Amino acid sequence: MAFQAPPKKTVGIDKNHWQKLTVATPGFPQFAQTAFKFKGEPKEIILTIEAGGPVEYSFNGNNVHGELVLGSSREQVQFSRRPAIGIWFRGNGTVTIEAWASA
Asked: Pick from 51, 48, 42, 40: which is nearest to 19 by CA?
């Protein structure tokens, strides 16, 4: 029997997230620029700065939790099993956000 690829998933919650975001704000905005649909689950999260910078990020919108700097060891950060419902960014640059539910 030949291999048959599975059909598209059209029901339920997608537990994957990908977003390219242009950040151009001096402060954290009122609402997170990235919001995860799969709330309440730990996540694997990768943040990558692709242009500009530096860009600071926050998991609560009040405190700086890190900084992305192009061409440095802080160009990409990865979090394993991180609880988060959203991420706020400030600065100037283009950031890619990848996330998926932890097993």
From this structure: 48
d(CA 52, CA 24): 10
Q: Is 36 helix (H, G, I), strand (E, B) or coil?
A: coil
Residues 6-28 have pLDDT tens digits of 777 777 777 889 999 999 999 99
**pLDDT per position as a tens digit, 59-87:** 999 999 999 999 999 999 999 999 999 99
| Domain ranges (residues) in the chain | 16-101
Whole-model pTM?
0.87
Separation of alpha carbons 41 and 83, rounded Å: 6
Side chain identity at residue 25, one-letter code: T
Q: Give Rg (Cα) of the chain.
A: 16
Residue 58 token pair: 């926050």
**Residue type at 103?**
A
Q: Name the architecture of domain 16-101.
A: Sandwich (2.60)
